[in-house]
């Protein structure tokens, strides 16, 4: 679990980079920090693993204030994934993935088994890549190694800063899909920075939308779309609104208008249409949901 209470940070020019940010992320949740460039997302993330110190406010990781934890044990309880993987160029794939288990003094057999298992899960054939060096890998493969390294010691918390940002769109989609399907991440507390709205909707349990260092709204994708807290939130999603609505709403959420439709309740409307469920009925239900929210908002 991660909790931020009124966290603020200014740099030398005195302008606040982050102002009174508060949120809580529970185990099993992925919170997306979304926002325009310079809105304070990375600064917020870097305060959680104490790469930066806040000027005021409190940050708790797994129940303890970060400033009271030994830096070494705090960092080992947190997997950190960066946009440009940050692999050690003179370490092989196996050595890169095994760094933290090595520091934790796991026995070599256990490290080897863990490295192989993560490589298989991330579609990096062990026979081809175990002893390869980062520069011998494609960008997508390097990023997979970066993910495997962050997951190696099974940390309860994962911080990810634009983890798929350096990849081309096709590779990005496939690495993102693999990441989402990993059993490894299902019980972790994850915070991910992105400015890609589609990615935020695909991966986020909840989204924290920031602007000018302040949280504008934290909520589920559907809450941000259908019950925006202010004009900034409302207009932020305008460009992609229709597709986002279909990705944010599930059959379960539309049940009041889909009583007679058979189908998997967990599917998003987007996936349900792709799976061949009746498009007109689904889009009609989305319209009715939207109207019910508008009525609720103006009552
Ligand atoms: N080390 C630093 N020294 C001075 N100013 C900084 C530093 N790091 C960040 N800032 C400033 O703090 C503000 C927030 O930056 P931050 O990197 O947190 O934003 P961001 O939302 O992550 O942006 P992006 O999406 O472009 O990475 C910006 O105005 C930035 O210029």
TrEMBL record:
Species the sequence originates in: Chitinophaga sancti
GO BP term, example: quaternary ammonium group transport
Keywords, ordered alphabetically: ATP-binding, Nucleotide-binding, Transport
One function term, GO molecular function aspect: ATP binding
Superkingdom of origin organism: Bacteria
Name used for this protein in its record: ATP-binding cassette domain-containing protein
Family annotation (PANTHER family): GLYCINE BETAINE UPTAKE SYSTEM ATP-BINDING PROTEIN YEHX (PTHR43117:SF5), OSMOPROTECTANT IMPORT ATP-BINDING PROTEIN OSMV (PTHR43117)
Pfam families documented for this protein: ABC_tran
Start and end residues of each ABC transporter domain: 2-237
Family of the protein in this entry: Belongs to the ABC transporter superfamily.
Database matches in InterPro entries: AAA+_ATPase, ABC_transporter-like_ATP-bd, ABC_transporter-like_CS, P-loop_NTPase
């Amino acid at each position: 679990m991660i909790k931020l209470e009124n966290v603020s940070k200014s740099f030398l020019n005195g302008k606040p980079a982050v102002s009174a940010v508060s949120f809580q992320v529970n185990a099993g949740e992925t919170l997306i920090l979304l926002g325009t460039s310079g809105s304070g997302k990375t600064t917020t993330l870097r305060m959680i693993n104490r790469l930066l110190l806040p000027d005021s406010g409190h940050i708790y990781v797994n129940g303890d204030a970060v400033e009271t934890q030994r830096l070494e044990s705090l960092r080992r309880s947190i997997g950190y994934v960066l946009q440009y993987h940050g692999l050690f160029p003179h370490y092989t794939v196996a050595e890169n993935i095994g760094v933290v288990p090595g520091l934790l003094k796991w026995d070599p057999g256990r490290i080897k088994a863990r490295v192989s298992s993560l490589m298989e899960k991330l579609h990096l054939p062990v026979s081809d890549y175990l002893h390869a060096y980062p520069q011998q890998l494609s960008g997508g493969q390097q990023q997979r190694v970066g993910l495997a390294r962050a997951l190696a010691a099974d940390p309860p918390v994962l911080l990810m800063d634009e983890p798929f940002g350096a990849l081309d769109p096709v590779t990005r989609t496939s690495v993102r899909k693999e990441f989402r399907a990993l059993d490894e991440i299902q019980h972790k507390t994850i915070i991910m920075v992105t400015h890609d709205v589609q990615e935020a909707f695909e991966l986020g349990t909840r989204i924290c939308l920031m602007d000018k260092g302040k949280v504008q709204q934290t909520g589920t994708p559907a809450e941000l779309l259908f019950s925006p807290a202010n004009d900034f939130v409302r207009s932020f999603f305008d460009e992609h609104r229709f597709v986002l609505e279909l990705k944010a709403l599930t059959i379960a959420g539309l049940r009041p208008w889909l009583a007679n439709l058979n189908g998997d309740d967990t599917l998003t409307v987007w996936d349900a249409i792709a799976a061949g469920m009746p498009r007109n009925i689904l889009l009609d239900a989305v319209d009715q949901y939207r109207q019910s929210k508008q009525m609720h908002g103006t009552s």
